Amino acid sequence: MRTVQDIVLNSYQELQLIRFQAEDLVPESSLELFDEIIADASMKLRMLNDLDATPEKQMEMGIGIDYDRRRPGDVSERVFSGVTGQPLDAR
Fold this sequence. Notes:
By secondary structure, the protein is mainly alpha-helical. It has helices spanning 2-22, 28-49; strands at residues 56-59, 62-65. It has a domain at 2-53. It is elongated and about 45 Å long.
């Protein structure tokens, strides 16, 4: 998992550099969408990192980790994508 975190954090830093360079070149709405996409990915990675176990689920590309599964007794709100506004569990 540390290798994945290293890759993702390095990519995030590079994306932030691109975002700063684009600030005066693209519409504000595009920058806001970019920020939403980054925030959505960050939230999902945080959820994956916080798992106590690794439940699996069938995904389009094969078996994956069910990082957004609600645990029994979990009283938190359903998690919605900041990009699409759809529940993350509505696939």
